[in-house]
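Appendix B. One record, verbatim.
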Amino acid sequence: MRSDALIPTHPGLAEALGQSEAFLAFQEELSRVAKVDRPVLLVGERGTGKELAAARLHFLSRRWQGPFVILDGASLSPSLAEAELFGHEAGAFTGAAMRRPGRFERADGGTLFLDEAGNLPLSVQDKLLRVVEYGQYERVGGTQRLEADVRIVAATNADLPGLVRQGRFRADLLDRLAFCVLHLPPLRARGDDVLLLAEHFATRFAMEAGLPEPEFSTQARRALLTYAWPGNIRELRNTIERCVLKAEGGIITALDTTPFASPWQHGPAVHADATAVSTPAGGGATPGPASAPDIDPADTAMQHGDSGTATTTPTASSPNPQAWTQGTTLPDAVRHLEEDALRGALARTRHNRRAAAELLGLTYDQFRGLYRRHRDAIEKT
């Protein structure tokens, strides 16, 4: 680990890494707020690490030896939200066979992290306000008043003031939760932290999967820094782990940021060689030329040089135009053209298949499909 990176103090915080000004300024403010036993509201885009920030708040506070309890507001149904937060007595509702402690009771002496606080039902917000204001609550179906020694840390990627204006969030509850509002910087604002995190995720995943420690090419590093990362750290981690899994020779040459893009949407069709049956004037069925595959030869015959202009790959066995009058079928000619294009691209890229696919204007999956089809012919040469 680099000496100027933030060294986590708890195993669950291993991904709180960074050295950018935006990241370090946020961590400094978070450390200062952690010492004050008041509610904190974390605001940030999806994937920016709000749960990690909440955990750091807890472990840097005087409550660090107490429980750190998490409740996802997005997973709460209005009918069960109150019981999840405050617990219930036996017989409080159908199915309540015994007393069950709620999240506040379980978090006593520690921190309760309310993730996606903007999704909390209004009926729960009323009772939550009382806990924040007075530190008291009752179980569902109970009459005993309980004390809550709990620090509340809430998080959201929603516009809570906007929800207040829409009547979907209580203004007085927002006032109480917003004692301190911390804004998590998005990954696109953290500069070279992207490279630091990418190397961390790549090394960790390679160790877990038993793969060689990968390296990033100059092109991949440039892509890491120029991509916007709308899913932030979560998207970066998933992308890097996919790339490590697919890397050939331990070198990551490109980023797979579009896992839902089907490799079969565009590009040349791949057909098995076949001959069609035609009926001559004499009436007997005789073999004839098959229908031409739906392939534009220019798609596979053209390569892009370093300057970005298209150049034709010189080959020793390109189809002879005169062959059309000498019995060569169109499928045979296309097959030769594909084989020559594959040979040329692999030669220019020193058999780096991902680079060869890019050179031919194909996705990696399209390239692999063509290569498998022509493997025997290519490997004989």
